Amino acid sequence: STSSLSMDRTDPNASAAAARHETRPLMGREATDFLLTGDRSTSINLLKSFLGAGLLALPYAFRESGILLGFITLALASTLSSYGIKMLVFSKMYLSDRPEVRSYTGIVREVLGVRGYYVSLFAITLAQIGTTTSYVIFASKTLHNIASGVSQPIWVLILSPILYAMSTIKNIKNIAPISLFGLVMTGIAVLSVLIDGYASESGGSLHVARLENFPISFGIMMFSMEAISGIFPIHNEMVEKHRFPDILDRCFVILITVLSTLGISVYAFFGDNTKSVVTLNLRSGFVPDMVKILLAGSLIASFPIQVRSVFKFA
């Protein structure tokens, strides 16, 4: 005991080192630091906020607008979304001396008063409930279609504890590993869709530009570029907030590349036979089933960001 006391006196940092060792993340310090460093964490969570259900309808949007008009529309939608997000963040930074202005609804309160605040809070909460519910419906229906022996309500019950556990994550940086996992699943699913489409013999006529259903295409592409609910929670956790516009620009470059590649390629594979949801064009078999599971998992990985945004708005 004397020797241990002597060691504690001569090494005052021993207890701190032991505490750091005990709280070391299970993933390992190097891997965790790589994921949770400011810019990487922000980029991962931003990309996962955008790559959600809208991804499934992008090929159909290109079918309704044509290849050239579709790409122009996608670029326009990304430009409008990027500008709107930057203006919102700028407004929050401009009002940074007011602690209550840390969210979209906080800005609305400053501009439109208390009534505007409650209207915007109700609208965003309702939108996020609809979004997260659609994720659960798609995931449970996908699992039911693959394992028909288990009913869809039972799959919802099975998924509920997982969704609840993810919803309790308080630090947005700790969501980054889940978002990264979701992005990996999305990437594998997109590649599998492209390979399956290339191997198919559907084909069909292609259009350069179609104006008759342009509103439908524009709406789908704007939905694909919408992530307002997750922007402020992600921005609030940043240490170097001045870097947000540059990170956002890089994310939009990646988004346009991924979405345009998926949309144009699948439309080129199936032509006018392109369905409203990309999974409907997949052939039956093991690989298509795995793609559906990956896409369902990718949507579930977006759940904690969507839910946290509602908590932060309140």
Q: Indicate the structural class.
A: mainly alpha
Compute the separation of the termini in Å: 53 Å
Mean pLDDT rating: 78
Fraction of helical residues: over 70%
Query: What is the N-to-C order of secondary-structure elements (H for helix, E for strand)?
Result: HHHHHHHHHHHHHH
- Strand percentage lies at under 5%
Number of strands: 0
Low-confidence blocks of residues:
1-10, 12-35
- Biggest sheet details: none
Gyration radius, in Å: 23 Å
- The tally of helices reads 14
Shape, principal axes of CA atoms: globular
Describe the structure using short key phrases.
314 residues, mainly alpha, 14 helices, 0% strand, disordered N terminus
How are the SSEs placed, and which strands pair?
Blueprint: H1 2-10, H2 14-22, H3 29-36, H4 38-50, H5 58-65, H6 67-94, H7 104-146, H8 152-167, H9 176-199, H10 214-224, H11 228-236, H12 244-270, H13 286-301, H14 303-313
Structure report:
Helices cover 74% and strands 0% of the residues. It is globular. It has 314 residues and is an all-alpha fold. Helix 4 runs antiparallel to helix 11 and helix 9 runs antiparallel to helix 13. The longest helix has 43 residues.
Question: Quick summary of this structure?
Answer:
The chain is mainly α.
